[in-house]
Fold:
Amino acid sequence: MDIAIIGASGYAGGDLMRLITLHPHTDLTCATSRKLDGTPVSLDQPHLKGFVDITYTNPDVNDIDADVVFLAVPHTVAMQYAGSLHERGIKTVDLSADYRLPQGIYEEIYGVTHTAYFDAPYGLPELHRDAIKKASFIANPGCFPTGAILAAAPVADLAQTIIYDSKTGVSGAGDTVSETTHYPNVADNINPYKWTAHRHLSEMQLEISRLESRASVHFTPHLVPVTRGILTTAHILTERPVTKDEIQMRYRHMYRDEPFIRLQTPKLASVRGTNFCDIAFEVEDGGRRIVAVSVIDNLMKGAAGQAVQNMNIICGFDETEGLLFPAAAP
Ligand SMILES: NC(=O)C1=CN([C@@H]2O[C@H](COP(=O)(O)OP(=O)(O)OC[C@H]3O[C@@H](n4cnc5c(N)ncnc54)[C@H](OP(=O)(O)O)[C@@H]3O)[C@@H](O)[C@H]2O)C=CC1
Ligand SMILES: CC(=O)N[C@@H](CCC(=O)OP(=O)(O)O)C(=O)O
Structure:
């Protein structure tokens, strides 16, 4: 299958190229960049030398012809491509936020008018596999919501309150240089940001509410000095006392056949560069608080890996094709 990656010169686009070039059923035929139009990909991303031998192009959206298109561009840019791809029935996985929320909520949170809105399934396969299977356009989830929702999903209906505390690597901010991501400001440091109103909160709230949960959901992210990875601690305050055995059964049951969920002590290094989400939990004495912790690689299960997982589903491939490899842990 021919694959086009729009926004290939970015961090998520780079990881998509790494995965697509190793995938047994796909050929990368188009990798776009405005700034690097005409430049060989491997000059810009030398780790891909010997694997990707095409040059970046900057085609008009109507000239993009591929079996599957990945949109790895910022929100508001993705919608400029999505309409044409959707009308032409081209299978598309959008890594941006443009189709993750109902239009009204999106416009409120992102402060923009959506110019090409249509409904798309939320591409978290562990919760929405059946809807994804039937669709040709998938809204790939945000990085924080992926780890957060998976950490609490098995017990969301028991929760009164869920407080998410996340630590993220710097690649989550993309490859644009900024004061926040400047080395001296990140190294040897931990910075909380958007303490009470991060734009991913509404994605978490919506998905948790779809799990028959009435919980109020709260979220505070922190920037930590690592390149890849998100560790999320979910403090789940329950409506009634629970037991460890009961909660263990729920996690084991919900994730029993999930190829990318591993119930084990979460360590960032165990998932770096992979599509795995590792999760563990403990129940506080008295049974009124479950502490669940998840780790993902923000560029993989949080972006490119999950996007390829979604591509596998909509193309009828084995869901794990091209994605089953362990981390290069220390
Ligand atoms: N980084 C992460 O951990 C995650 C990212 N995402 C989402 O994935 C998308 C890509 O993120 P990321 O790779 O980090 O971002 P980067 O900033 O690293 O890359 C952005 C890419 O989009 C291209 N681009 C930017 N503006 C335009 C435009 N107006 N028209 C066409 N192309 C454009 C850039 O190419 P050029 O400037 O060369 O033209 C570049 O290739 C975003 O929507 C992001 O929110 C989702 C989950 C996690
Ligand atoms: C460190 C950092 O800045 N992280 C980004 C993660 C957002 C992201 O990746 O965007 P998606 O909505 O497409 O998932 C942030 O907090 O906004």
